[in-house]
């Protein structure tokens, strides 16, 4: 992925640096050779030559590029879980993934962490983005996911004899867990995604179901992954599943839906970030009836929505870390709606816009393992920037309107937005 050579100066906008600090009303940003040189009040901006690229933010907002911390580029218009392994062949899924990655970048998301991938496509998508073969967010890649036999992601009956090879690696016991991780090591992933608990989408292994993986299997996954320098996350909704994941040494949690005092203390002690992915639940409740979802499933999503919102509030209030990412790619939660998650956390969960933006930038970069070079507008970090013609803090919903984006920049290069279009 190429960075700009030379200097770019952005002025005339409110600068939100992503750290949670108060915004700077008359901010300026200087990017030199793809790296941030200055971010602060325009009055203190160091002198730059007259012939540099200058971008006028038009009185809008200058903020870090957004980070989608639970990204499924290989998911496309999934109407039921079963669609994930039978809907399209690998060739078509690859094309869809590239299109979804480009869309995410156009939506202001300059970085993303894969939350699980069909056919290991995300590993190769990451390589293609880095080599400028296609455009998309800077990607931390995962691959096929790990789930216990009979768990949430194992729905094909044995008599069909078609397996789940394109979606998950099914395991029975710690030895098979270690073998599954070693396969992913060969495939080149950075994150190992697992399924310790159930989900409302599958009532037979619902939100409180914890038999998708045993603690011994989870521990074997973590031990093997860490030995190879990989990180581990898991779909953790049930309280006991959250606790098992933390005790096993997981590096992040997806959802963390039903957290109690004991597991919250353990989460804070280990400083493990959580990606709640909650707008998915609201979309399921609102759109489920017209899509023919069973009422029991809709009721489960409602319970998940309420429990997850309460857990998210408690985690952040206690000093924990939340990332923003929304399980997009389903029929009721399509790609391109990523910023709806941010507005949801303000209007439904009750967080402050500045808190949500920190979660969607700084914490997202930390979850990716790239907190040192991404996620905030600070000197020395890469020039990944979103410039919006509007007041994001006053109306965070404006981030859903791509027509308001003046520029989406990666490494100081304008990749999307109005300034990227030819005159």
If you had to describe this structure to a student in words, what would you say it looks like?
By secondary structure, the chain is α/β, with parallel strands linked by helices. It folds into two domains: 7-65 and 376-420, Urease, subunit C, domain 1; 68-368, Metal-dependent hydrolases (TIM Barrel). It contains eleven helices and 16 strands. The chain has helices at residues 83-86, 90-106, 121-130, 174-187, 215-227, 239-248, 261-270, 279-287, 295-317, 340-347, 353-368; strands at 7-15, 24-32, 35-41, 53-64, 66-71, 109-114, 138-140, 145-148, 168-171, 191-194, 231-236, 253-255, 274-275, 385-388, 405-410, 413-416. The longest helix is centred in the C-terminal third of the chain and has 23 residues, at 295-317. It is globular. The model has no long low-confidence stretch (mean pLDDT 93).
Strand fraction = 15-25%
CATH class of the largest domain: Alpha Beta
Report the end-to-end length measured between terminal Cα atoms.
25 Å
Strand order of the largest sheet: 3-2-1-4-14-15-16
Q: Say what the CATH topology of the largest domain is.
A: TIM Barrel
Low-confidence stretches: none
Structural class: alpha/beta
Compute the number of structural domains. Answer: 2
Q: Please bin the fraction of helical residues.
A: 25-40%
Q: Number of helical runs?
A: 11
Using only CA atoms, what is the Rg? 21 Å
CATH superfamily of the largest domain: Metal-dependent hydrolases
Based on the coordinates given, report the CATH architecture of the largest domain.
Alpha-Beta Barrel
Mean pLDDT: 93
* Number of β-strand runs: 16
Largest sheet: 7 strands, mixed
Overall shape: it is globular
Give the helices and strands as they follow along the chain.
Answer: EEEEEHHEHEEEHEHEHEHEHHHHEEE
């Amino acid at each position: 992925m190429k960075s700009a050579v030379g200097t770019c100066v952005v002025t005339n906008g409110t600068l939100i640096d992503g750290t949670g600090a108060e915004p700077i009303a008359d901010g300026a940003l200087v990017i030199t050779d793809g790296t941030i040189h200055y971010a602060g009040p325009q009055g203190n901006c160091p002198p730059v030559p007259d012939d540099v690229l200058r971008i006028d933010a038009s009185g809008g907002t200058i903020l870090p590029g957004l980070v989608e911390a639970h990204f499924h580029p290989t998911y496309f218009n999934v109407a039921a879980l079963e669609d994930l392994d039978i809907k399209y062949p690998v060739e078509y899924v690859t094309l869809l993934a590239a299109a979804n990655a480009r869309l995410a970048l156009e939506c202001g998301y300059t970085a993303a962490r894969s939350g699980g991938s069909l056919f290991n496509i995300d590993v190769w998508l990451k390589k293609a983005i880095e080599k400028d073969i296609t455009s998309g967010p800077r990607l931390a890649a995962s691959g096929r996911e790990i789930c216990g036999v009979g768990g949430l992601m194992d729905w094909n009956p044995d008599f069909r004899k078609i397996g789940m090879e394109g979606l998950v690696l099914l395991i029975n016991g710690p030895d098979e867990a270690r073998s599954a991780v070693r396969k992913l090591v060969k495939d080149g992933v950075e994150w190992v995604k697992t399924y310790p608990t159930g989900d409302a989408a599958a009532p037979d292994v619902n939100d409180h179901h914890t038999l998708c993986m045993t603690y011994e299997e989870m521990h074997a996954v973590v031990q093997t992954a860490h030995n190879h320098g990989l990180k581990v996350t898991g779909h953790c909704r049930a309280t006991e599943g959250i606790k098992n994941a933390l005790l096993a040494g997981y590096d992040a949690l997806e959802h963390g839906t039903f957290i109690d005092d004991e597991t919250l203390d353990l989460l804070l002690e280990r400083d493990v970030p959580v990606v709640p992915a909650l707008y998915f639940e609201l979309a399921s409740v609102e759109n489920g009836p017209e899509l023919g979802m069973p009422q029991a499933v809709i009721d489960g999503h409602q319970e998940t929505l309420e429990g997850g919102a309460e857990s998210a509030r408690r985690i952040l209030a206690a000093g924990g870390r939340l990332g923003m990412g929304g399980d997009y790619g389903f029929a009721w939660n399509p790609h391109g709606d990523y910023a709806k998650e941010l507005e949801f956390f303000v209007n439904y969960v009750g967080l402050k816009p500045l808190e949500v933006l920190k979660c969607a930038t700084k914490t997202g970069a930390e979850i990716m393992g790239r907190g040192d070079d991404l996620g905030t507008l600070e000197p020395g970090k890469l020039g990944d920037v979103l410039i919006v013609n509007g007041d994001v803090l006053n109306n965070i919903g404006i981030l859903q309107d791509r027509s308001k984006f003046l520029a989406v920049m990666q490494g100081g290069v304008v990749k999307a937005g109005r300034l990227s279009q030819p005159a």
